[in-house]
Design goal:
Elements: H1 13-43, E1 47-52, E2 57-60, H2 63-68, H3 72-75, H4 89-102, E3 107-112, E4 118-129, E5 135-144, H5 146-157, H6 159-162, H7 169-180, H8 185-197, E6 201-209, E7 212-221, E8 232-240, H9 249-263, E9 268-270, H10 278-286
Parallel strand pairs: 8-9
Antiparallel strand pairs: 1-2, 1-5, 3-4, 4-5, 6-7, 7-8
Length: 302
């Protein structure tokens, strides 16, 4: 007969209740987490997708339907590069492969909307690795940058209106001569030719007073891969007639320049200043410039 005091093999009622309660709590936590994740993915603006090692969709976030018109179920199992514009598909595939392998950077390209039009998409991501560090797929986050591209294109079309005109060149040279004591006509003539002939975006602005040019600024932004605008612009030169010093013309020119560059999604403006030109340094500091981490080196060729 079993010993009434022997509880071997008989589960403790208190322990079983504790385990059941813990299971219920954990289940509720998982359900809440899943609901939270669903709310996030259903309403996110950016696109999130997972691909296998051949570039086929394994998962696409609900935001794909809002941005590109495709329900996620329409994408799963399809080859992602097929929707890249055919003119740039080969180079974009190579660029994305390099980006995923590096795990940094971004790539911008045209992607076909369900209605047949193309949207500009900027993507970043990294590879998914197995236990042996071999790529078995990838995860990418993307965003629609079509409006940015349109703004850049619009500004480029308007660049003729913003540029220093050939008949303003003499006035710019006169102002520069008063400021530097040197005749740099050849420099400004070369800059004008550069604006007219070279690629990239050359932005120049002039300030006029009673029909006379009293200030000017010149900057440039180059194009990177796939026509993407560089994130940094170069401020080549700025000048204000000494008779209008302290009138705010320089600040106004730079403020307008920054607005134009921001339209292009330029994030940084770089320039060089001679250590002896303390007045220009103070002016640039007052406009928000600060010393850069870049170190410039020089060496004579002889």
């Amino acid at each position: 007969m079993p010993n009434p005091g022997d509880t071997t093999g008989v589960p403790s009622i208190d322990l079983q209740m504790l385990l059941d309660e813990r299971v219920r709590e954990r289940t509720a936590e998982l359900m809440a987490s899943e609901t939270r994740l669903r709310r996030i993915t259903d309403h996110m603006v950016d696109l999130v997708a997972e691909f296998d090692d051949r570039g086929y969709y394994c998962y696409a976030s609900p935001s794909y339907e809002r941005v590109l018109g495709y329900h996620p179920d329409e994408l799963v199992g399809t080859w992602a590069p097929e929707k890249i514009h055919p003119d740039e598909r080969k180079t974009v595939i190579a660029a994305i492969g390099a980006m995923l392998a590096a795990g940094e950077g971004s790539t911008r390209f045209r992607c076909r909307h369900k209605d047949g039009t193309y949207r500009w998409i900027e993507s970043t991501g990294r590879n998914i690795l197995d236990a042996g560090d071999r790529p078995v797929g990838s995860v990418m986050g993307s965003r629609d940058v079509t409006e940015q591209e349109r703004a850049a294109e619009h500004l480029q079309r308007r660049s003729g209106e913003l540029r220093l005109r050939s008949d303003d060149l003499a006035a710019a040279v006169r102002i520069d001569r008063k400021l530097t004591g040197r005749d740099r006509s050849a420099y400004y003539a070369a800059k004008l030719r550069e604006m007219l002939t070279e690629s990239g975006i050359r932005v120049s602005l002039v300030a006029e007073e009673d029909g006379f040019v009293v200030g000017f600024v010149m900057a440039r932004v180059d194009f990177g891969e796939f026509g993407k605008v560089d994130k940094a612009a170069i401020l080549d030169t700025i000048g204000v007639h000494p008779g209008f010093a302290g009138s705010g013309i320089g600040h106004a020119l730079l403020s307008q320049l920054f607005l134009n560059l921001a339209t292009l999604q330029v994030e940084t403006v770089l320039t060089q200043v001679s250590p002896e030109n303390s007045g220009l340094q103070r002016f640039l500091y007052s406009c928000g410039f600060h010393p850069s981490q870049r170190l410039m080196l020089s060496k004579t060729t002889s």
